[in-house]
Amino acid sequence: MKNIIVLNGSPRKGNTLALIEAFTAGAERAGHKVTRFDLQKLNIHPCLGCCRGGKDSASPCVQKDGMEQIYPAYREADLVVLASPLYYWNVSGQLKSAFDRLFAVAECDLNYTNPVKESVLLMAAEGHEFEEAEYWYDRLMGHLGWKSLGKVLCGGVMEAGAIAGKPELLTAERLGESL
Ligand SMILES: Cc1cc2nc3c(=O)[nH]c(=O)nc-3n(C[C@H](O)[C@H](O)[C@H](O)COP(=O)(O)O)c2cc1C
Questions:
Q1: How far apart are CA 113 and CA 122, in angstroms?
Q2: I need a surface site. Which of 23, 61, 102, 116 has the fewest CB within 10 A?
Q3: Total domains, the chain
């Protein structure tokens, strides 16, 4: 059984959420535990770059906001799902800010290493130009030494709900089930 957290960077109930729900259905069917964080609702502030965190492992950042809910779950997680709409060729600000703030966890470690995890990328977009977002994700995986288990990138979806019937939903479900 894997402990999975989903960082949902979409602010609306739309295509990214549909991918997350399909992935979650598959993962839960396979016996894994999935916890989703809807970042928009958590009032997460961007990183201040102060490098003064890490003194309290339960609450490592100097900023006390919605990340307080994520830090304990992140520590326990085997797999972190990064889910986001494509916003100007990259992940949303919500996801970027939350991920930057995970840096504080590394500050708890004298060797400045983030815990090693597995990861999955789920994204939705109007077009099909995911290259920059994939580059960011791939660089992150390489830098952190994480193992990516897959990406599901669904282009051609603009309005919320446009993803209905798209094959990427099945791909996401199967990815969750295959873990
Ligand atoms: C601020 C903003 C920027 C966007 N930038 C892009 C983009 O660069 N490329 C693209 O294909 N779609 C872009 N889109 C469209 C969204 O990626 C698309 O509507 C997606 O399905 C939204 O996912 P959601 O339903 O989970 O919110 C943008 C939308 C917004 C609101």
A1: 25
A2: 116
A3: 1
**pLDDT tens digit string along 161-175?**
999 999 999 999 999
Domain hosting 68: range is: 3-177
Q: Is 103 near ligand 1, meaning CB less than 6 Å away?
A: no
Instruction: Kindly report the CATH number assigned to the domain that includes residue 31.
Output: 3.40.50.360
26 lines ligand 1 (CB under 6 A): no
Q: pTM here?
A: 0.97
Q: Give, using CA atoms, the residue closest to atom 20 of ligand 1.
A: 125
Q: Is ligand 1 within 6 A of the CB of residue 87?
A: yes
Q: Residue with the nearest Cα to atom 29 of ligand 1?
A: 87
Ligand 1 pocket, residue 160 CB under 6 Å: yes
Nearest to 136 by CA among 90, 81, 83: 90
Q: DSSP strand E in the chain: where? A: 3-8, 33-38, 79-85, 118-124, 147-154
Which residue carries 């290259």 as its tokens?
Answer: 131
Torsion 74-120-106-31 (CA) sign: positive
